[in-house]
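Repro:
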Amino acid sequence: MKLRTLIAAALATAAASLQAAIVNVSGSITADTTWTADNEYVLAGYVFVTEGATLTINPGTVIKGEVSTGAGAAALVITTGSKIMAEGTADEPIIFTSVLDPLDGSLGSDRKSLWGGLVVLGNASINSRSDGEAPATPAVDQVEGFSVSSEQIPLITFGGTNDADDSGVIRYVSIRHGGAVIGTGNEINGLTMGGVGSGTEVSYVEVFANQDDGFEFFGGTVDADHLVAAFCGDDSFDFDQGYRGSLQYLFTIQIQDQEPGDKAIEWDGATSPLLATPVSNVTVSNLTAIGLGTSGTGDGSNAPINPRDNATVNLHNSVFVNYERGIEIESDIGDVAPSISSNIWWSHVAANNTAANWGTSQGSSSDQDATSYFTNAALNNSIVDPMMIGISYTAGSTELDPRPSSTESPIWTLTTADVSGAGLTNPDYVGAFGNDLWIRGWTNLAIAGYLTLTDITDPIISIPDDFESPVIPNSASKPVNLSSRSDVTASSPITVGFVVGGTQAQTVLIRGVGPSLVNFGVPNPLSNVRLQVFNAGEDEPFLTSEVVTTQSVTVGTQVGAFALDAGSEDATVVLSLTPGVYTAVVSGVDGALGNAIVEIYEVD
């Protein structure tokens, strides 16, 4: 029910988009411009925002790139000195995607490189050129993945001396199906940031099914939070050319297809010389990274992190699952050893979950031995199952939920590292998610039905005692009823799982019936019933009821349930539950045993 509702909502969004006016965009934008949600903007070739202009993109606006490759690839480039003000909301995200995307989540994760991507360039400092040539003073470079004329080189040049540079705001933005191929091994990233300064705001950004990296930072000092890299064909996050910033609450999931994911983080410092300044210094906290989940080749192609090139590495409070093994620290990492602490590491290959395997690189034999990160207890790196609610690589499965499945999950219990010195918030959990599945709603992962339906934050909405059910007696719209009869023994209660579908809260009548079964000739009925309701995966119930309320009797009559004896010790409850997965459990009070029935009615 929930998935059908999600798809219907997405189709409605797509239909609205089809009714929007099509605005074709090409060439350069040289004056302040606003794009609005009542239009759909189609990019043809490189579109440059230049001459200090500001491009404002309103919430809910859709920008599509023509299917394109090579020098004609569709891409939006915010040039040095110009700005983008793309401030979407959780309810109305801004979407960059391909013209082939109907916006209903049906364009699969294998549809990569259909257009270019979003590029933001600034005046913050970098430390080297990507081609290894000697940089000018101050160092500047041209962004990778572009083929331009000599007159256009300034439009793709970034770097400078203003580390506080402001390139605008990118918030609640989803970038999908990009990474157009320019040449062999040369593609555009989903979101490229070159020399972007700390005055720029980047929060709640998704890159979905990009051919190359999800996010790449070439130098600069911009901080970012709540980033999602899903099913990208290379690294999820890549740091280069002296990037210095702090990142918190990151999520990536990679996939084994014709363009499988590579590293969760490729952590580069400089190109040439390796000791170039400013030295890269990046802090990452609260990353959840889900690898390919396949056996792999054992050559390091899906290592979780790859520090190298004199990078200063600070990695804390993060979770890595479904990577085969190995931290790949290359021999040119420099004199400052990576700071890696308070992280969870868990391979899908059971035999690899040892300090020796996780500490042994899958890359070059000259890579550093990382075993000490797992044998030094003070670092608090734990090789343990993080006990996530669910992992899925399949659209429409509604099974992906990287939150902890219970309060006993090491995501909650592992001692966290202090990251306040990097300007980040000290968390009370590791990984990107505690109770809040913040990727829900605005991402393509949500629209395509990857995400679970369970809401473990405040699932109960109170119902007044004078609540009247909207059920119309004898109508064709009959409420759903799940029923299970069994015998409550000393060691085994009756357990029934159920799903609340849709997108809104659902009124549910739950009955644990024992004593009233005597009216139907049921032998040995349970004399005193305890009814408990749990969130899926939780060890403690959020509700325990031992009383039949007047409200539940009224609702039971309206839905056609058989009457309960007045004053009996059956147990019932009427709840409004948000969409999700729940469990109802019936047991006996004070050790009572006997036959009972669990009934669950979906009321409205």
